[in-house]
Specification:
The complex is a heterodimer of chains A (about 220) and B (about 200).
Chain A lengths: L9 H14 L5 H11 L3 H17 L6 H16 L10 E2 L2 E2 L1 H9 L43 E5 L5 H10 L3 E4 L7 E4 L5 H9 L4 E6 L7
Antiparallel strand pairs in A: 1-2, 3-5, 3-6, 4-5
Helix pairs in contact in A: 1-2, 1-3
Chain B lengths: L8 H23 L3 H23 L2 H17 L10 H19 L6 H9 L7 H16 L2 H11 L5 H8 L3 H22 L5
Helix pairs in contact in B: 1-2, 2-3, 2-4, 2-7, 3-4, 4-8, 5-6, 6-9, 7-9, 8-9
The chains are: A alpha+beta (about 220), B mainly alpha (about 200).
């Protein structure tokens, strides 16, 4: 006795695959005709259409905020437009624009800088790195990053020393330098774990910013 | 051209031709280092790229970083646009590659509670039921790969066809179709399992 083979085969699968683009109007007329013909006889595909008519709009809804992003983008672009030989508008360290340092330098005298729990930043907006940037940057107005460090972090001013220690222990970091003139701490974390360490630091409420200061592992 | 939802096919075709040529004009001006042109392009693409990158990356700080990295490429190398595809396809392809790199560096899955918090911070007009659906979808989508989420977002929000998606993602059209089918089945299973009456 042979197996009973249903009439639904490649055609049904083909239409199932095309349904999302049938619904968003992106099929060519031939494909559209094929889908329409199959839909008229296939209850399963009709149900799938109903499902996707609900699913699509749900996926499309998320809040947006352009102003904040543009203000950061504008600073990046303006820095990029600065003529060669003229100092860039913000100090730069380790391959990243480093606005936090400038602000930290201005606020440093207000803070107690003697201990780990001392010098910390009030508010900061960090730049994102230019995509694929390969330029060799040097510090302007801040001390050069000592060798051996691969992460720089700035904590909130009211962070207790104990929290700082916990943050460093959690990511297996060694303190290489700091507080710097910019009230930042330079840390050394195992190179393969650098991105994980950065993510862990950024996730802490007491961290204002954490940035890599070396080229990092090859990507 | 990649669009928002709610437009008819005729609207799209008419508007599409006009917007596409606007984009090309802006790119030409950006080649001349015109910041105003770049700002116009940035503001136009910000909502679409945010949605696309949010689908892929989920974490807001990563989304903004990837978005600005993407647009920095546009600013620095507008000459790389060769006119062979639509400007939007070119920009989304840059965004896709940028997001994949960011994703590989920050693989932080979203848990149910985080999904609920994200949804609660959204539209206050949404009903409790809608928020529940969205929270489930956010969690479910986060368990899909970035490639699957990219196909979902490009189709459902941006209204892209599978050929254009294949171009953006640099893969065969068959791969796009298969990813979409698997993603839909997975989401359907998740929704049916937790909100049986939704389907």
């Amino acid at each position: 006795m042979g197996r009973v083979i249903g009439f639904r085969g490649g055609k049904h699968r083909e239409v199932q695959e095309l349904l999302p683009w049938y619904l968003n109007g992106q099929l060519d007329p031939t494909e559209e005709d094929r889908v329409r013909a199959h839909l008229s006889v296939c209850a399963e595909c009709q149900a799938e259409v109903r499902f996707q008519e609900r699913l699509g709009p749900e996926i499309a809804q998320l809040p947006l905020n352009v102003e904040h992003s543009w203000s950061r983008m504008r600073r990046m672009v303006e820095a990029d437009r600065a003529p060669a030989g003229r100092p860039r508008p913000e100090p730069v360290w380790g391959g990243r624009s480093w606005a936090p340092i400038a602000l930290a330098r201005r606020t440093a005298p207000l803070l107690g800088v003697g201990a780990l729990a001392g010098a910390l930043l009030v508010a900061v907006v960090a730049y994102s790195p230019p995509f694929g940037a390969t330029a060799q940057y040097h510090a302007l107005g801040a001390r050069a990053a000592p060798t051996g460090g691969n992460v720089m972090v700035i904590f909130r001013p009211d962070t207790p020393e104990r929290s700082l220690r916990e943050a460093l222990i959690a990511i297996h970091a060694h303190l290489v330098d700091g507080p710097t003139e910019a009230d930042a701490y330079v840390l050394s974390v195992p190179a393969p774990e650098r991105e994980i360490a950065l993510a862990a630091l950024r996730a802490r409420a007491e961290v204002v910013t954490a940035q890599p200061i070396d080229p990092g592992p090859s990507r | 051209m990649l669009y928002g939802p709610g437009q008819s096919e005729v609207d799209r075709q008419t508007e599409g031709a006009s917007l596409a040529s606007d984009d090309v004009r802006l790119i030409r001006r950006i080649v001349e280092r015109d910041l105003r042109a770049f700002e116009a392009l940035y503001r136009d693409y910000h909502p679409r790229l945010t949605r696309f990158l949010t689908n892929m990356l989920r974490l807001p700080h990563l989304v903004e970083e990837a978005l600005n990295d993407t647009m920095m490429v546009v600013w620095k190398r507008p000459d790389k646009y060769n006119g062979a595809s639509k400007v939007s396809t070119w920009i989304f392809a840059i965004a896709y590659r940028t997001a994949l790199k960011a994703r590989s560096r920050h693989d932080e899955p979203l848990d149910d509670q985080s999904a609920l918090e994200l949804v609660d911070g959204g539209d206050p007009e949404q009903s409790m039921g809608q928020r529940q659906v969205q929270a489930i979808l956010l969690t479910a989508m986060d368990r899909l790969s970035a490639e699957h989420r990219a196909v979902l977002g490009l189709t459902y929000f941006h209204g892209a066809g599978y050929r254009e998606i294949a171009e953006i993602m640099g893969c065969p059209v068959g791969t796009v179709k298969t990813r979409m089918l698997h993603a839909r089945r997975y989401l359907k299973g998740m929704l049916a399992g937790r909100l049986g009456d939704w389907l």
